[in-house]
Amino acid sequence: MAVRPAPTDPLSSDAESVLAAMDEARGQTLALVAHLDDAVLEAQHSPIMSPLVWDLAHIAAYEDLWICHRLGGRELLRADLAAVYDAFETPRAVRGEVELLDAPAAREYLATVRERTAEVLESEGAGDGVLCEMVLRHELQHTETMRQAMALAGLLGEGEPLRAMGGEDGWLAIPAGRFEMGAGPAGFAYDNERPRHEIELAGFEIARRPVTNASWLHFSEGGGYERREWWSDEGWAWKEEYDIGQHPTVAAGDLEAPVCHVSWFEADAFARAHEARLPTEQEWERAATSEQSPPEAVGQVWEWTASSFLPYPGFRAYPYREYSEVFFGERYKVLRGGSWASSPRVAALTFRNWDLPERRQIFAGLRLARDVAT
Question: Under CATH, to which class is 15-152 assigned?
């Protein structure tokens, strides 16, 4: 198993390079939705996703808060909008019901905040670069979230560019041993990636490639959604209540491309059906950083792990507890690796994504693991 190489840490205190990177990301954000008319941007296409126009204004509000207000000491440009564009004050389920900025106003909000950001960086500098990098990555993460909403609404044009994988099938054996897990103290990382700590693992095997559409079709056609013994109690109840079957992208995709839009419940059932399991996130990171790993195609889909989203020993919330701490617990499951829609700037080897086990809107698949026979 191998993943995309972690990018060189881009953390910079140089205001000019920071602003250039932010402007590049903004160009990508605007280009993503340039073909959509205002009515489409303003509609809520799914109750589990935001209207696209909410994401646009939220990106602006977040930047204004952390760079213009916290870093630059300015008053908020639109204090009256703070609650509407706060992810916790206004959850996704109600974002289509509350009064939001329309598309032209959201674009103007983005532009005006960016002008203020440029003024702050010119006059105050970028500090140690951490807040600026956080704001930049926040926007990059939201463009992936927006692609998820667009996929649900059929707005991605040609669809998801998942391609056949190279490399070999089979298993990679990882011997028992200790390794350093998580991000080190230098450079940028999210609070949930730290502190780096030593982990001891038993030996295990992990699949060299993620599960393909072809394998999933075989699972589905072989009773994957009917065989009760392959499902957890919670997973079976979810499947039955919502009449869950194979996602339509599976049959429509390249047979040798990684399967996508798989929930954790489905991934767990598939693993049980193959007398395997999902890797823990400790195993995933150990395998991803192993010198034994051959170069193979990955990073097309997020990969579910068996692990719940929990803090590392010695965790400290920074710069605000709502990024990670409020999600810790058994309810959320960890995903690793990144997808075709992820920026490599975000999806480093230590990055931890998480979501509810029933969610299928994310560009997620799976990779199998199994214990070493003794």
Answer: mainly alpha
pLDDT tier at 290, thresholds 50, 70, 90? confident
Can you tell me which residue has the tokens 């502190």?
A: 195
CB 339 within 8 A of CB 251: no
CA 201, chain centre distance (Å): 26
The pLDDT value recorded for residue 112 is 98
115 closest CA partner among 18, 23, 31: 23
* Residue 144, token pair as written in the block: 């992936």
111 band by pLDDT with thresholds 50, 70 and 90: very high
What digits encode the pLDDT tens for the residues 11-63? 788 999 999 999 999 999 999 999 999 999 999 999 999 999 999 999 999 99
Token pair 């960086």 is found at 121
Cα end-to-end distance, the chain, whole Å: 23
DSSP symbols for 279-321: PPHHHHHHHHT-TTPPP----SSEEEEEEEE-PPTT----S-T
Two tokens at 14? 């140089």
Q: Which residue spans of the chain are classified as CATH 1.20.120?
A: 15-152
* Helix, strand or coil, per DSSP, at residue 310: coil
Q: Could you give the residue ranges of the DSSP H alpha helices within the chain?
A: 15-32, 38-42, 52-63, 103-124, 130-152, 213-221, 233-242, 248-252, 264-273, 281-288
**For the chain, what is the total number of helices (H) and then of strands (E)?**
10, 9
Across the chain, mean pLDDT equals: 94
**Exposed, middle or buried by CB within 10 Å (0-12, 13-18, 19+), for 323?**
middle
What backbone torsions phi and psi does residue 355 show, to the nearest 5 degrees?
A: -165, 170
Mean pLDDT of 325-350: 96
Burial of 300 (0-12, 13-18, 19+ CB in 10 A): buried
Contact 210, 165 (CB under 8 A): yes
Cα separation, 45 vs 41, in Å, equals 9
Beta-carbon contacts of residue 254 (< 8 Å; ≥ 6 apart): 162, 163, 164, 213
**Which neighbouring-strand residues pair with 336?**
303
What pLDDT sits at residue 159? 83
| CATH H-level, domain 171-371: superfamily | paralog of FGE (formylglycine-generating enzyme) (3.90.1580.10)
Interatomic CA distance for residues 334 and 354, integer angstroms: 4
